[in-house]
Design goal:
Distance between the termini: 53 Å
Organism: Atlantisia rogersi
Keywords: Cell membrane, G-protein coupled receptor, Membrane, Olfaction, Receptor, Sensory transduction, Transducer, Transmembrane, Transmembrane helix
Largest sheet: 3 strands, mixed
Strand content: 5-15%
Main location: membrane
CATH superfamily: Rhodopsin 7-helix transmembrane proteins
Membrane topology: Multi-pass membrane protein
CATH class: Mainly Alpha
Number of helices: 7
Number of strands: 5
Subcellular location: Cell membrane
Length: 214
């Protein structure tokens, strides 16, 4: 659909990987095996740390949250990637692309915050062993884990909304196997300097959080 000299984008095409024949099948099998390994391995971590009372300590509690984040992150990317590789379903609706991007940002941000919390937990255990039980109580751990998840929401919603409100024109081919910030941003036909600057600043802040906590 066209509006003036601009095109209203309703879907994107995921370029993905360019493979042919047996190479594509082998690569798809490799991705599937790795995907299953990630799901099974992290699911085992979640289950074991939940059912074993001995592992009901802060370190394994945060590890369980981190494993669950890895599961969610993989589920937000790999199924569509396999659809592109196996059955050439490389079309993704505009809203689905926005949803995938927001999920990726959310889980990556949450993972960074959880790593920071885990670093803080180990720092308290080493530097303040006598006060560890008080400083890392069950309620305190729950609040920190919840905060890690909730803190990623405004980052994900903010950047996704901002990006997809920008005008898209010309090619609708995403040069990647999933909707990520950089390849989608290349399709925008407007000045993106401020957006890129804000992405850089927020990324630096999120990555530096583990260092600030310790």
């Amino acid at each position: 659909m066209k509006l003036g000299n601009q095109t209203l984008t309703t879907h994107f095409l995921l370029l993905g990987f360019v493979f042919q024949g047996k190479v594509q099948v082998l690569f798809s099998m490799l991705i599937s095996i790795m995907f299953l390994a990630i799901l099974i391995g992290n699911s085992l971590i979640v289950v074991i740390t939940t059912i074993d009372p001995v592992l009901h300590v802060p370190m394994y509690y945060f590890l369980k949250n981190l494993a669950f984040t890895e599961i969610c992150y993989s589920l937000s990317i790999v199924p569509k990637m396999l659809a592109v590789l196996l059955v050439d379903r490389n079309t993704i609706p505009f809203t689905a692309c926005a949803l995938q991007l927001s999920c990726v940002i959310l889980f990556v941000t949450c993972e960074c915050f959880l790593l920071g919390v885990m670093a803080y937990d180990r720092q308290v255990a080493i530097c303040h062993p006598l006060h560890y039980a008080t400083m890392m109580s069950r309620d305190h751990c729950f609040r920190m884990a919840l905060g890690s998840w909730v803190s990623g929401v405004p980052v994900a919603l903010g950047f996704t909304t901002w990006l997809f409100l920008l005008p898209f024109c010309g090619s609708n081919t995403v040069d990647d196997f999933f909707c990520d910030v950089s390849p989608v941003l290349k399709l925008v036909c407007a000045d993106t300097a401020l957006f890129e600057l804000m992405v850089f600043i927020v990324t630096v802040i999120i990555v530096m959080i583990p260092f600030f906590l310790v």
